[in-house]
Amino acid sequence: TSAQIGVTGLAVMGRNLARNFARNGYTVALHNRTAAKTRALVEEFGDEGEFIATETAKDFVAALERPRRLVIMVKAGEPTDAVIKEFAPLMEPGDMIIDGGNAHFADTRRRERELREQDIHFVGTGVSGGEEGALLGPSIMPGGSPESYASLGPMLEKISAKAEDGAPCVTHVGPDGAGHFVKMVHNGIEYADMQLIAEAYQLLRDVAGYSPAQIADIFRTWNTGRLDSYLIEITAEVLKHVDAATGKPFVDVVQDQAEQKGTGRWTVQIALDLGVPVSGIAEAVFARSLSGHTELRAASKDLAGPTARPLGEAEAGAFADQVEQALYASKIVSYTQGFHEVAAGSEEYGWDIDLGAVAAIWRGGCIIRAAFLDRIRAAYDTRADLPSLLSDKTFAQEIGAAQDDWRAVLVAATRQGVPTPGFSAALAYYDALRADRLPAALTQGQRDFFGAHTYRRTDREGSFHTLWGADRSEVQA
Ligand code: NBP
């Protein structure tokens, strides 16, 4: 017998993905650099389905039916290149190498190009949902050639998460690095979502005076409405949790320094290159790095702040409702920015990404899964070339209805000295987009003054320069 699919790299993600394929009726060839892990998987889970355990690269490749489908699930970066180098020479034209790790899309583009010379399909594939998603159904974002998706798609559709309407959370995102690009932006949006939720928590705690357990209840209520999402749900769980050792709220015994693995940073770096303002995601990445600067924070402890004036009980309830509005409005802005980046990447690399389909496959399995994504899909279904999510009528109306409360929350935050980089950046983006005139005109004047960079006029075509150092007359540039 031969295997329909093979998985090499059997750490948490690879082992669960392999089990997921087997549980769905596929014969799965297994391989890992350290063979003990392969044996352990078969010993523990061998009865879940058909596995073919192999130890050498040659046996692994030989165990796969043609065209071969070989999934790499190793640490991203050099290990992925090492594994490709090991297996590619053993593969034949038409075979597929699927990289399910968190690769940078530029690496994926390079690998795809190199392997194409050998007629091997390299399918950079974003996989979201963590350990549990890999086993029970992740959201899957494959790039690569249409031919590879024709062969691989049905299998991925089977093992993927399903949205509430039953649709599989997988689509062929686009060629070469499109899948990993979209996975990167997914993670960037995840950073922003988490930051916004964190700010809502901080406001409910420091301005409204609620305890973590009370805030957990507030989040639970929010989770029954338009904010219904995995991240809000687990936030309530984390806030409710009490530390067994001290009896204190768990959130109070954890060090307040957030770590990161890099996909949020990539999202911002690439956005800078593409000229896309993803200020909410950037603030989320910066908020994590700021939290880690413990010496800087310690040295700043005595800086002056306002006198805290916590709200009374009656005011607190109304404030919580306003925070819900601010959170929802800011969330609309982060998704607007994230989808702008996907659109810009698609344009830059000629991927022709269907933004509605991306929203649809994020409805289940992944970390940012939420009822909200169905509405984003609907917005793009109504108009595929929507210039921005904010230009969708429904979202525009909702954010318009939320804006008074959104501003009130930021006034309170500013007065009480609670930092809200995410909420504030989102509102600034909203107001800047709305603005009739931006001070960019003044910026252009300054640039022309010191660097003769020229400017365009509102009333005439062409580029102009003012002779600032002379008689200040205007010349055509
Ligand atoms: P790790 O990222 O911890 O990688 C461990 C695996 O890589 C092991 O199988 C290890 O083999 C193998 N490996 C390494 Br390290 N260097 C190698 C090399 N030079 N040659 C061959 N194999 C090598 O595993 P993971 O957490 O399961 O994640 C796998 C991939 O999935 C990563 O790219 C990750 O970013 C991505 N991802 C993870 C999550 C998550 O929630 N963890 C979610 C989505 C995507 P060994 O057993 O011999 O050491």
Short structural summary:
Helix content is about 55%, strand content about 10%. The chain has helices spanning about 10-25, 35-45, 55-60, 80-85, 105-115, 130-135, 145-160, 180-205, 210-220, 230-240, 250-255, 265-275, 280-290, 295-300, 315-350, 355-360, 370-380, 395-415, 420-435, 440-450; strands at about 5-10, 30, 50-55, 70, 95-100, 120-130, 140, 455, 465, 475. It has a seven-stranded mixed β-sheet with strand order 3-2-1-4-5-6-7, with helices on both faces.
Total DSSP helices: 20
Q: Report the order of strands and helices.
A: EHEHEHEHEHEHEHHHHHHHHHHHHHHEEE
Largest sheet: 7 strands, mixed
Q: If strands are numbered along the chain, what order do they take across the biggest sheet? A: 3-2-1-4-5-6-7
Shape: globular
Our estimate of the beta-strand percent is 5-15%
Which ranges are low-confidence, i.e. pLDDT below 50, for 5 or more consecutive residues? none
Estimate the mean pLDDT confidence: 97
What keyword list fits this structure?
about 475 residues, alpha/beta, seven-stranded mixed beta sheet, three-stranded antiparallel beta sheet, 20 helices, about 55% helix, about 10% strand, binds nicotinamide 8-bromo-adenine dinucleotide phosphate, 6PGDH_Gnd/GntZ, gluconate utilization, 6PGdom_BS, pentose shunt
